[in-house]
TrEMBL record:
This is Aminotransferase class V-fold PLP-dependent enzyme. It comes from Tumebacillus lipolyticus. Residues 3-122 form the MobA-like NTP transferase domain. The keyword Transferase applies. Its cofactor is pyridoxal 5'-phosphate. CDD domains: PC_cytidylyltransferase. Keywords: Aminotransferase, Pyridoxal phosphate, Transferase.
Amino acid sequence: MKAVILAAGVGKRLAPITQTLPKALLPIGSETILSRQIRQLAEHGVEEVFVVIGYEGEAIREHLAASPPPCDVFLIENPDYRTTSTAYSALLAEPHVGASPFYLLDGDVVADAALFEKLAAEDGNVLIYQPKSISSPEEMKVSQSGDSVYLSKTSEGEAALGEFVGAARISAGAGEAFFAALREQSQGYYEVALNMIAAQFPFALATVEEGTWIEIDFVTDYLQAVRMFTEQREGVTPLISEQILLCPGPVMVSKKVKSALLHSDIGHRETEFIEILTRCRAKLNQAYGVTGKDYTNVIITGSGTSANEALISSYGPGKKLLILSNGEFGNRLIDLARCHEVDHTPLEFGWANPIDLERVEQLVATGEYDGLMVVHHETSCGMLNPIDQIGALLQAYQVDFLVDAVSSIGAEALAVEKANITFCTASANKALASLPGLSFVCGKKSAFQALKGQKARTRYLDLYRHYEFEALSFQTPNTPAVSLFYALEMALDELLQDTVAERMRHYGYLASLIRNRLKKLGLQFVIEEEQMSRVLTTVYYPEGIDVEEFHDWVKQNNYVIYRGKGPFLGKAFQIANIGHVREEHVRSFLDIMERGFALTQTKTSVKQ
């Protein structure tokens, strides 16, 4: 028995993992898809396999040469694979198959033994399909009208029996007609040729069950195939993760943090939740650099903005705030103050401009202000603002210091006591590398207590109420996102085990890899390097780059970066190295980035 495997295609929809690797060589456990197919065919009586190759064909040659297959394998080159489809590839097998019966198999099908048993059990023409009541437009469907069976992506309703698996048996008598039909429409799909001969050479239908096979068209298909067909004892990790997030939030988290969500259900008014809430709050104090007993914290179910809103709307009424801004997130603090009608003065230095401490002191020295608020890490440009210097300045004037450390806690040197911070906000899904949905306010106990009796502008985000419930009653005022507390505790355990100092070293090293490559390419940063944080680099695009094509290229290769914001939109982009990002992620991205520059510059010049 002979078999033909069609493995010439580019697999564009798998671009993240097929840039230099043909689909047929994607690993499924300890075998590639191609090796698995050849082994299974040989186990079911096939003596000769003809593989039609095209895209990265040399890689397939080398692979088969390095690992001799269990039967005779011959490679057929399709030099026009970029402009032809499966019909043309199948037609190239005609001189090799001759008048013999053969199996025809798509090179992107991963299946268990049942599929091959179905093929081997029949003598005539056979199509393998999976019965379905609901199908997607992407699927090649098997339909039946009278005695005739035909294949089409557009079959609808009761006529569609299910999805064609991409496996067929062509009998000796039908082969000549099949190849003649392929010659008539060689630019299309081989399924059309099967339809053309179906009336003269009827096909029997054989079914396979759901979960016994998968066609790999998309990244999610590949990941599912690994899960379906890889035995646990092999300890095989998929070739890729879902996406590599090189944006400053949300960030990637570790497997341990994700697995922490698999916990027993608990009531949030029961002892179990009291314990995890208390543990998380204690560990958060360590992350904030608290060494004494003067500081505490509360955890709010909501993003980092909810913590800032809780602080401004609870602390602000009856006080006057000076709010510093040199980017989007400083402006957001100003917007929150306006929203809650808090008396405030915005001191805006302009995006990406450093804070002028002399100007700050001039205003603070007037005695008009009860508190000053600033963003520690302004992620719209990647600038790290000088909170230690500001804290020291405010201490001399007895002005409260409010800090947004949403994207800096766990990544930068931040100690609330040392910096004389009154209240400090943060978020779970930045450098702490937990899941999004929880935020925190750490502050002096005396400052929390001073909020008592003050009329907050919101009920859900009443900061004293959170303090009263959590610090005094070991509860939360509202139903919390219980599962996120399990993830948060795991992330805090990982941070404290690594130590903040080690995380800072790690982030700094990754940032140096990024910045050294960008400088080598002659690119310009939006701010000076000494002003940058360890976790974010904002850089101007090279000249001639099609910004959207470049962003799409990066996304197609499974990496997510930020476009520039505000005045940098269309001019600069951002690369973050925050969260569970590893060195290999960064190095791989930089190679892809450089290729993306070359490709999008070429396209731009052609358009011109």
